[in-house]
Amino acid sequence: xxxxxxxxxxxxxxxxxxxxxxxxxxxxxxxxxxxxxxxxxxxxxxxxxxxxxxxxxxxxxxxxxxxxxxxxxxxxxxxxxxxxxxxxxxxxxxxxxxxxxxxxxxxxxxxxxxxxxxxxxxxxxxxxxxxxxxxxxxxxxxxxxxxxxxxxxxxxxxxxxxxxxxxxxxxxxxxxxxxxxxxxxxxxxxxxxxxxxxxxxxxxx
Length: 205
Known about the structure:
- The chain is rod-shaped, with a radius of gyration of 49 Å.
- The chain has a domain at 144-205: Roll (Nucleotide Exchange Factor Grpe, Chain A, domain 2), CATH 2.30.22.10.
- 65% of the residues lie in helices and 16% in strands.
- The chain has a 3-stranded antiparallel beta sheet. The protein has a 3-stranded mixed beta sheet with strand order 2-6-3, with no helix packed on it.
- By secondary structure, it is an alpha+beta fold.
């Protein structure tokens, strides 16, 4: 067999191999198309399910955030209500106690002129004990006296801190000058608990 015959055989085999390879490639392509066509609906369905799950997760997150915000608002409202309740209860109680301090202070002032040494000694001790108790109680309850000085003008104070209970004719001071503080006023937790009662001057007619 000469070289020419061998060459022909090689070419023939190569052609057959090539044709077979092309045939297999074509079959593989067809198979891929077939499988792809089968998978496409499932893929769309899977994508739709994924999108639905994402939407559901987002809705749940939004709902959870709303519930957390609502719970936080309710907690704040609860604490606000409790603080207001505590403030109002404390305010009513302290308003009932303050007249006792007023009475004790007036009693001490009236009896300071007493000549009996034992009475004076008792009053001095009572005054110290009252002042100490009053100071501790006021500090604990955040009560502060509204400092009102005689011979000061009403304009030096806020209108809600002063209550005018009387006026006296007096030309020694400008009209509207505080002549006397008849009852002390107090702040409770930064707000006016009881205004100070004062007597002011007015011009003689």
